[in-house]
Amino acid sequence: MTVTATRMEQWTWPPAYDDDYRPADDATHWFPVRETMAPDRRDELLLARIQEVMAYAWSTSPFYRAKWGAAGLEPGDVRTLEDFERVPVVHKDELRADQAEHEPYGSYLCVPPRDVRHVNGTSGTTGRPTAFGVNGRDWRSIANAHARVMWAMGIRPSDTVLIGSPLSLYWGSWGAYIGAERLGATVFPFGAGTAGQSLRTVHWMRQMGVTVFYGTPSYALHLAEVARDAGIDPRHLGVRRMFFSGEPGASVPSIRERIATVFDTRVYDSGSMAEVSPWMHLGAGSDEPGVLCWQDLVHTDVCDPTTLRRLPYGSEGTPVYTTLERTAQPMIRLLSNDLTRWEAPSAERGRTYPFLPRGIYGRIDDMFVVRGENIYPSAIDEVVMRSDNYGGEHRIVISRDGAMDELVVQVEHDGGLGGEGGLTQWCATISGRLRTVLGVGAKVLPVAPQTFARTEFKARRVIDDRDLFRSLEASTAGASTDGVS
């Protein structure tokens, strides 16, 4: 055991947790010292761990040796957290390219391939899939980490936790599963994605006395609709806590309040990136919107997207992650391209970690520009879902007719607005709120209840028709020059 290990519970490198340990059910914290210590003191210990992780990666990973060598640095050059900011970030495209060249796990795998015990990964729908190789040590570390965060959400061994997301390559399902299992709860891996499964989910929740639900916010709202259609009041299912990942929502006030009200439950946000599992290192620790950065699990810096240097608290930027307990595929300064704002640690929250009051509320890649304004879909979601008579789904359509972009939001209503006059006023009200929030006009079109398909996973609500317009414009321009000398 290192000297620092005596200062924080079970803090060793490589990680070695006592799998039999669990706090008393009435304990607020899983590890009270690690979770409540002075941030400056924790930073000293985190720097020492970062140095250990970098030395480990330097000695075991050709990927990191080559990347850092090209930048003219090695682990011994990092003597402060400010020095660490100069370590070059890792891009997801680099990981995919490295795996293509060094199949199947890439040259950033730091253990022999035979030590990999679990394989998860991306779907590969937008390019080459990325394989996540997890050895036994990391599997146990992730389980312990998730158990800690779920404990902070108030989940206890007496709970029955239903996993309501696909049990496939998706890391979210398995991370929630092994965290609940390590915590000592009963785990019900029901999954999602099969036709007709949602109604069966509702019946099983009632039959088995499910008290905790995990999935995406979109799927929870879909389940509520399915339950009501079957004559079952979601509030009577007895779900006392719901925690989410996979998409913005659980820290968006309108979505959070909608879920909490319809199920009469408490709502918790979590989640960052599968590559940096334990992805619950961004996880709620109280009954307020937002998530804590559990810095002793994954070191998080919110950085300027251009300079990639750490921003002061109160700033908006993109998180850069460094895993502190992964030995198979450690991520060291992985650029997320997500968007968030962070606040300084406050002991009043019960844990002295930095805080993201709105969680991860978008991806820089998802941002679109309409008439010079930067717009994130989550901002539209919040306005629309907060509206009275909202019918449960909507679509965001960006199109171009001539020289001007047009933003149209198609919104389901619940059928209770009366005639044409009521619909017109309803759309005008939502449109006015969107203009205030977005800084650009949006045309709101009402659509009938149940117009849009519901999802059992992540909602995809944005349709950008400008790409079609651009391709048609390009082809027309090309045709007009044919035969011109």
UniProtKB/TrEMBL annotation:
GO terms for molecular function: ligase activity. It comes from the Bacteria. Residues 372-466 form the AMP-dependent ligase C-terminal domain. Signal peptide: none annotated. Pfam families: AMP-binding, AMP-binding_C_2. The keyword 4Fe-4S does not apply. Residues 110-317 form the AMP-dependent synthetase/ligase domain. SUPFAM superfamilies: Acetyl-CoA synthetase-like (SSF56801). Keywords: Ligase. The keyword Ligase applies. This is Phenylacetate-CoA ligase. It comes from Jatrophihabitans endophyticus.
